[in-house]
Design goal:
Elements: E1 33-44, E2 47-58, E3 62-66, H1 73-79, E4 90-98, E5 101-102, H2 110-116, E6 117-120, H3 131-141, H4 149-159, H5 163-166, H6 179-191, E7 197-201, H7 209-222, E8 227-231, H8 235-241, E9 244-252, E10 259-268, H9 269-274, H10 279-285
Parallel strand pairs: 3-8, 3-9, 6-7, 7-8
Antiparallel strand pairs: 1-2, 1-4, 4-5, 9-10
Helix pairs in contact: 3-6, 4-6, 6-7
The structure holds adenosine-5'-triphosphate and magnesium ion.
């Protein structure tokens, strides 16, 4: 089983809270890569859903993937932690690297990949268990060495900005929480197995604006310690939270005529929203398309 080298120190960057933050914080022109896609195409059977994507994901950054419905955002996101392995007929060509190692190599364990690269879904999906057991489940399932599980549960819930709301009802069912609380619980559950990267597929689309703002604040906090890659349909959200934004679109494949997802433009979020280089990006962000 291959091991991955973990990043050591986070870069010194501005951490002003979301909402007050100038999107032009001090970021390197090129991301300091934790993960990268190198010529990645993704197929469902013969259908090529995503075509030849190459991009890097920066350490301690939030990267947003945006674009019209069907352009392959979820498909690409799922390829970043081998979640597509679980989808019938899905196949990934090219390389997806994590600390330089192709996660699709034969000697890589997909379970370990998904521990290091966690995922939060569109609809909060807590287990039908207590709040406590939702957090404890992952570490127990993988036999993680934990000196004190109670402490770990508290730490994860604190990091996910949920502890104060649930500390007196840890043994109650997670289903008793509101949607926004459930989503923070799912984030806490992801943190419990000590990931480095967190993938989020439209994590706020089932939430009201207040719960959404809490998740956005939380993402800005988590960026100190984690790398976040988020799919969002909400362009204001991308503009608020993301350091870099990648715009995708779906174009008719030359060979088959099927629509396939392409990366159009990837840049600092401020550049994408203020000065996009590609007309297709401009049309999309100004609401003329999609
Ligand atoms: N399991 C699957 N089997 C076959 N085709 C699929 C599967 N999942 C997605 N697709 C197809 O792949 C393409 C990309 O889908 P995907 O869900 O990645 O798009 P998306 O950008 O996330 O869209 P949305 O914004 O609507 O969530 C679409 O044409 C879709 O129909
Ligand atoms: Mg999707």
């Amino acid at each position: 089983m291959a091991t991955f080298t973990t990043a050591t120190e986070a870069p010194q960057v501005d951490r002003t809270p979301v909402g007050q933050r100038d999107t032009e914080r001090d970021l390197p022109t090129q991301p300091d890569p934790v993960m990268a896609c190198d010529d990645v195409s993704i197929y469902y059977g013969d259908f090529r859903a995503v075509t030849r994507v190459s991009m890097t994901f920066g350490r301690n950054e939030i990267t947003a993937l945006i674009g019209p419905s069907g352009c392959g955002k979820s498909t690409l996101l799922r390829s970043l932690n081998r979640m597509n392995d679980l989808v019938d007929g899905a196949r990934v060509a090219g390389h997806v690297t994590y600390h330089g190692k192709n996660i699709y190599d034969r000697d890589v364990d997909p379970i370990e990949v998904r521990r290091r690269i966690g995922m939060v879904f569109q609809k909060p999906n807590p287990f039908p268990k207590s709040i406590y057991d939702n957090i404890a489940y992952g570490p127990r399932a993988i036999g993680m060495k934990v000196s004190n599980l109670d402490d770990l549960v508290e730490e994860c819930l604190t990091r996910a900005a949920l502890w104060d709301e649930v500390k007196d009802k840890l043994k109650q069912s997670a289903y008793g929480l509101s949607g926004g609380q459930q989503q923070r619980l799912c984030i806490a559950r992801t943190l419990a197995v000590e990931p480095e990267v967190i993938l989020m597929d439209e994590p706020c689309s089932a939430l009201d604006p207040i719960a959404t703002a809490r998740i956005e604040d939380l993402m800005a906090e988590l960026r100190r310690d984690y790398t976040i890659i988020i799919v969002t349909h909400n362009m204001q959200q991308a503009a608020r939270v993301a350091d870099r934004t990648a715009f995708f679109t779906a174009l008719a494949d030359e060979g088959t005529g099927n629509r396939t997802g392409l990366l159009v433009e990837y840049d600092l979020t401020s550049n994408i929203f203020r000065a996009p280089k590609d007309k297709r990006t401009e049309d999309y962000i100004s609401g003329r398309f999609g």
